[in-house]
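fwd from M.: "can u put these together and see what the complex looks like"

so here's what she sent:
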Amino acid sequence: MTEPEAEQMSVAPGEPHDSLLSESLSYVIGLGLALLLTAVSFWVASTSVLWGPGVATGLVVLAIAQMGVHLVFFLHITSGPDNTNNILALAFGVLIVFLVMIGTIWIMSHMNANMGPTPEMMNLHTQRG
Amino acid sequence: MTNEAATIGLTHGGSEDTGLGHRGPESKSIVVPYGFWLFVLSDMVLFSALFATYATLVLATDGGPTTNQLFDRNLVAIETIALLVSSFTCGLAIIAARRSNMVWAQAWLLVTGLLGAVFLSIELYEFAIMIGEGAGPQRSAFLSSFFTLVGCHGAHVTAGLLWIGTMMAQVWAKGFQPHIMRRLLCLSVFWHALDIIWVAIFTIVYLIGTLP
């Protein structure tokens, strides 16, 4: 097996493509999409056209989409065979992040709803004015 | 050995690689950024804990200022664009470095660092105003978690700025040697990751926090 072949078996995260045009284009497309999603986020947050209670969820979806854009176009995480290690590590990281965040928010909101706060808890923990 | 592996379908695309560690470890240019990628992912796990804390405590204002009274969306928009464009120029710096173009690599790294400094200055300005108004981290559980989360991101950006300066000096002094290129690639992974975390911060903290 020759050396170039060996190097194509895996790709480091963030490693750009080979031709100047395609790798520059990747960053330009990424910047364009990220700017677009950012602009939509700020518009969604300030408009009164949309149904109010759904706006927060929509913003989270837009944020996740933008993170995807950053991963694909800036960090060059793809679904190709040379990226398997990178994407498996990412999948595990995403799993832990979601477990920690959703688990915490879920449990704490149930605690707040089901356990009437005693006066001490009001002072020490929730401090709700 | 190879024929045997081929018979039972363990080779990749006709190469002699059995996929069973036959080739030995990957080259350093793969292993080092991969290890750094693992670090960045663990850093995101750290931030997820800070986000969870913030989400739990965001209403615990203890009668003090709330998110709607404190945050200024215009400043956040400028911060967001500065960090996003710096992520873009960081990528351009890597492109230039891979072609051993000293002038453009240094120029794009400088622009990246300056935009990062703009971001950091605005953040510190915002912190200074909040603390001046008596909305410092000791005011309420909400503000403690806010300063921890956003401050931790700001500390990462500060570290990134120091790293950019260091890499500009190293590239200047040592040229585009393989180990310098590995460090540059790790720096770009770090910088892009900071922007990903900022997307979560500006959405969850600032935009959702200032909904009417």
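replying to her w this: Residues 5-11 of chain B have pLDDT under 50 and may be disordered.
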